[in-house]
Backbone:
């Protein structure tokens, strides 16, 4: 009976130690320029806009309203943006997996 | 992004050359158009103009096709008394279009367009290579 209680107490202490250490040592939210998730969501919103512009240009071209050069430019920008987003996503997933596979 | 700027500049050049090509094709197509009225002037050759416009939003100088200007040179006179548009001496006024000059202009427009295409291609390659760095 005493062993699970002691284990729970030790676990609680370890968890609190983690939070106090995190809040005192590293504070990502207070870094000037916002935190990483803000940056990421902003970048993703921008890229969604760029990709949407590319789609609109392609639609306008099909209906014969757009200049071919503009379509090529927009679709190119959308393509590069998508490549960038995919590359960043791969990096983030790889980082997550390497943390998850870390032997504890 | 700076790459999208160079893309926009190249695209403006391509658009301007497209407009220039339109004027050249008008000249070539109308090389033998006579006047609709007797004794009137035939088609007058147009000269394509290109202007530089600084785009403040983009921070780059773009090329734009300006208003086409009329070529002031004299019309060709051809002796053709049977033509209903001939004047009292039997001469018909033909446009001041020289197909050799037009073909040279056309080649130049084509080469400029290709140069802009190469700029776009190189820019895209540079962007793609930079993004590739993320994949390593």
Residues:
């Amino acid at each position: 009976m005493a062993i699970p209680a002691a284990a729970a107490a030790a676990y609680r202490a370890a968890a609190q130690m983690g939070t106090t250490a995190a809040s005192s040592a590293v504070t990502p939210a207070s870094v000037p320029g916002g935190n990483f998730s803000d940056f990421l969501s902003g970048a993703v919103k921008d890229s969604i806009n760029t990709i949407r512009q590319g789609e609109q240009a392609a639609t306008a071209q099909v209906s014969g309203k757009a200049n071919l050069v503009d379509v090529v430019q927009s679709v190119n920008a959308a393509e590069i943006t998508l490549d960038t987003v995919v590359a960043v996503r791969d990096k983030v997933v790889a980082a997550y997996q390497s943390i998850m596979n870390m032997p504890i | 992004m700076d790459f999208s700027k160079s893309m926009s500049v190249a695209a403006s050049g391509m658009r301007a050359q497209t407009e220039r090509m339109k004027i050249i094709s008008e000249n070539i197509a109308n090389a033998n158009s006579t006047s609709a009225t007797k004794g009137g002037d035939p088609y007058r050759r147009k000269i394509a103009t290109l202007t530089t416009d600084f785009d403040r939003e983009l921070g780059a100088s773009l090329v734009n096709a300006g208003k086409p200007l009329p070529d002031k040179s004299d019309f060709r006179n051809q002796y053709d008394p049977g033509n209903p548009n001939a004047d009292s001496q039997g001469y018909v006024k033909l446009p001041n279009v020289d197909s050799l000059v037009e073909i040279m202009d056309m080649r130049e427009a084509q080469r400029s367009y290709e140069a802009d295409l190469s700029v776009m291609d190189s820019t895209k390659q540079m962007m793609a290579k930079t993004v590739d760095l993320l994949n390593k």
Residues 35-104 of chain A form one domain. The radius of gyration of chain A is 24 Å. Chain A touches chain B at residues 67, 69-70, 72-73, 76-77, 80, 83-84, 87-88, 90-91 (CB under 8 Å). Residues 21-25 of chain A have pLDDT under 50 and may be disordered.
